[in-house]
Amino acid sequence: MSGRRHPGAALLGPVLAAACAVTACAPPLEVPPSGTAQPPAIVSLNPCLDAIVVEVAAPAQVRALSRWSADPATSSLAPDAARRHVFVSGSAEEVLALRPRLVLASTYTDPATVDALRRLGIRVETFGIAGSIDENIAQVRRIAALAGQVPAGERLVARMHAALAAAAPPPGAPPLDTVLWQPGGIVPGRGTLIADLLRRTGHADGAAARGYSQGEALPLEAVVRDPPRLLLVAGREAGQRHPVLARVPGMRVAAFDPALLHCGGPTVIRAAARLGAERRRLPGARQ
Predict the structure, then answer these.
(1) How far apart are CA 180 and CA 188, in angstroms?
(2) Strand-pair partners of 105
(3) What is the model's pLDDT at position 11?
(4) Under DSSP, is residue 174 helix (H, G, I), strand (E, B) or coil?
(5) Which residue has the higher pLDDT, 242 or 1?
(6) CA-CA distance, 230 to 219, in Å (whole number)?
């Protein structure tokens, strides 16, 4: 052995001490009897994973969700679902005290926390950001399998497919020139979940057609100079609320809930319905 300390070693000692203080050093894991397939107790540390896990796991399995889901401004949960759950900031001490067998984390979760939990015997599964509907469906199925709830995962996937089918334009209908104006005055780019949703529900990526890429700021002047047929406004910047927008000829302006922008799973269902409805509201749109 080289004698070098593991990167998580500095955190591991305090975590163990805190865990013993909270749990009286009881075994931190729920280990099912040999030969059983007891679904695992779960802690989720990411708001997009939260939204999926509450749909596919049994309520008793969900020990806690991320603190982001407690805030309506950052939550993808329905208000009634949010009220039923415990929320954690994501520290290893908090998670360990809840004695989960499975932790769902993002690739951006603090690596030291992930390492400490794994060294303590807790299974941690990490997920990246889904850049398409297909990638998100794969995530739903993976979470459902980890939770021991494959049929529930398939039911959610079926609902997602049904929502997309209901919101899809008729064959041969031309895509609607649409610009989605996100919080901060920026636009989404190709390779994002919301861009795939726009495409599948009959909207052309108006920002990309105008030369804008992921995360670029869209000035009010540019919108007025070259207006799309539909402007979906999800932000509250001064330009996004300017009264001139209501006077641009040939452009419909509609508010879009920011909570529908980033997460998948059940959010796809709500976002698809909203995008399909907005396309159908325009005069002359093919149903």
Answers:
(1) 7
(2) 126
(3) 41
(4) coil
(5) 242
(6) 16
Among 268, 254, 125, 257, residue whose Cα is nearest residue 178: 254
Contact 130, 151 (CB under 8 A): no
Assess if CATH 3.40.50.1980 describes domain 170-281.
Answer: yes
3 state SS of 45? coil
Identify the sign of the CA torsion 217, 222, 224, 230: negative
Say which DSSP state 250 is in.
T
Q: Cα-flanking dihedrals φ and ψ of residue 250, to 5°?
A: 75, 5
Mean pLDDT of 228-232: 98
> How many CA atoms does the CB half-sphere of 18 hold within 13 Å?
17
C-alpha to C-alpha distance for 122 and 103, rounded to whole angstroms: 7
**Per the structure block, which two tokens stand in for 8?**
């998580």
Q: Tell me the C-alpha to C-alpha distance, in Å, between residue 227 and each of 110, 175, 221, 255, 266.
A: 42, 16, 10, 16, 31
Contacts for 244 with CB less than 8 Å, ≥ 6 apart: 220, 224
Identify the DSSP state of 126.
E
CB hemisphere CA count around 139 (13 angstroms):
29
What stretch(es) of the chain map to CATH 3.40.50.1980?
A: 10-31+38-128, 170-281
Give the pTM.
0.84
CATH of domain 10-31+38-128: 3.40.50.1980
